[in-house]
Amino acid sequence: MLIKRCLIFVLVFAFMFCTLSFPASALTQEEIPSPSAILIEPNSGKILFEKNADESRACASITKVMTLLLIMEAIEDGKISYDDVVTTSEHAKSMGGSDIWLEVGEQMTVDEMIKATAVASANDAAVALAEHLCGSESDFVLKMNERAKELGMKNTVFKNCNGLDEEGHLTSAYDVALMSAQLIKHEKIFDYTTIWIDTLRDGETQIVNTNKLLKSYDGITGLKTGTTGQAGSCISATATRGDMSLVAVVLGSSTGIERFKDAASLLDYGFANYEVLNFSANDSKLKNIKVKDGMQSEAKLECVGAKSLVIEKGSSKNVEKNIKLKEELTAPVKKGDKAGTLEFTLDEKTVAKFDIVAKEDIDKISFTAVFFELLDALVAL
Questions:
Q1: Are 150 and 180 members of one domain?
Q2: Residue 11 phi/psi, 5° resolution?
Q3: Distance (Å, rounded) from C-alpha 155 to C-alpha 168?
Q4: In terms of domains, do 262 and 316 share one?
Q5: Can you give the residue range of the structural domain that contains 348?
Q6: pLDDT tens digit string along 260-293?
Q7: In 10 A of CB 151, how many CB atoms?
Q8: Tell me: the pLDDT tens digits for 169-192?
Q9: Which residues are catalytic?
């Protein structure tokens, strides 16, 4: 009988232990030797780890993240296409460092130039793309800095489009994370950043990816490495496992090995300790709201903002959702007018709050509006 009771106690204790939720184990700055680093979840922008993340530093070919972002956005906007033919200029050919040895007048498609830039980190190809889009590298760099400001990259000044050392060409780990998160919204980029070995010039030129994590890290999707004398060894590493994607940025590592090790450690920490809680606040989840003095008696609603939360693993059962709505809106109602909030709390602390807004315009009721409404109805009979 005593043995049986002891066995039951052990089983109950084991069950309770397994169902407990433990806080995420901290990753200390000492465990990341590189001088500057950050780990974020790109959809929410939540920072999971940082070390001197706002420190201004050279970033070498990580610069090409912005170059590729502008090219992908231009393709999406129809300004250029993957099949466009890019002609190499004398300026593009003159680039040193990592390149694909473009000759003056040599032509490749935008697709091939993107491949060379993303996979082989080709400085000449990056400049050729910049000139194709804007006419000159200097004009392209102006757009790079404009886009940086739009993204909130407060510690960034670009002087060129490929990352070769130049005085005043600076960014920060946080800023790199911002532009990396923006670039990976264009999922087509993964067609290039996940290539390990490929060729150009009908197979005559072999290119090998500079991101060695492609061969060693589960879920790696990119993104860009960089190395110069001023910048040291740098990487913006992106990876996806299940529903969660992460961006790990490491700047100023003393060696390439340290760079890859630190990036892997950051990603490991994120995947081991956090999870993404996706939620839905679409039309089917939100009731219509009454409209006073409107041509319609009710307005449809929608939630604006992110559609996911990043939380410590095991804590999802403690997340509570609370929708607070006004009793009614008064016409005229404009699309986007605030009608309430969607709030998420974890252990009684607010972890996220999003606005609930009107999904449509609703005019104020008037004799003229009612008259024409009735007239349309009669015409339709």
A1: yes
A2: -65, -45
A3: 11
A4: no
A5: 283-368
A6: 999 999 999 999 999 998 765 444 467 899 999 9
A7: 16
A8: 999 999 999 999 999 999 999 999
A9: 61, 64, 121
* Domain end (from 208, 239, 274): 274
End residue of a domain, out of 222, 257, 274 = 274
How high is the pLDDT of residue 98?
93
Residues 375, 370: Cα–Cα separation, whole Å: 9
CA distance 252 to 230: 8
Provide the token pair at 108: 């490749």
The residue among 246, 318, 324 whose CA lies nearest residue 281 is 324
Assigned domain for 19 exists: no
- Kindly state whether residue 217 falls inside one of the protein's structural domains: yes
Q: What is the CATH number of the domain that holds 296?
A: 2.60.410.10
| Token pair belonging to 158 | 């670009």
Instruction: Say whether the peptide bond before residue 178 is cis (omega within 30 degrees of 0).
Output: no
Residue 13 lies in a domain: no
Q: Is residue 14 part of a domain?
A: no
Domains: count for the chain? 2
Task: End-to-end CA distance of the chain: give it in Å, rounded.
Answer: 86
**Which of 142-151, 315-324, 367-376 shows the lowest per-residue confidence on average (mean pLDDT)?**
367-376
Torsion of CA 203, 206, 211, 214, to 10 degrees: 50
pTM above 0.85, yes or no: no
C-alpha distances in angstroms, 350 versus 107, 321, 342, 345, 346?
Answer: 55, 10, 11, 4, 6
